[in-house]
Amino acid sequence: MSQRRRVGPQFSPAGLACRNCGCRHWLVVYTRPGPMGSIRRRRQCRHCGLRVTTIEREAEDGNAEA
Ligand SMILES: [Zn+2]
Asked: Tens place of pLDDT for every residue, the chain, 66 residues?
């Protein structure tokens, strides 16, 4: 039972606010590896339940623009 996971920072990416209610509190529903070493996270707004998928880089480059 060896789990080899590379888990990024648990905080939400800067500027990620719910477009429905504007809050910034997200539950992470699941995390999956994405294309080219990125990480896909399915998030659900704690306030209104809106679901979004974010794609995050494993290494922060300092520039969050896609
Ligand atoms: Zn919301």
From this structure: 555 665 555 555 666 899 999 999 999 999 999 888 888 999 999 999 999 998 888 665 555 555
How remote is the CA of residue 39 from the centroid of ligand 1, in Å?
Answer: 22
Distance 45 CA to ligand 1 centre (A): 5
Closest CA to 39 of 57, 52, 27: 57
Domain boundaries, given as residue ranges, for the chain: 26-57
- 26 C-alpha to ligand 1 centroid (Å): 8
Instruction: Give me the amino acid identity at 28.
Output: V
CB 40 within 8 A of CB 32: yes
Looking at the whole model, is its pTM more than 0.70?
no
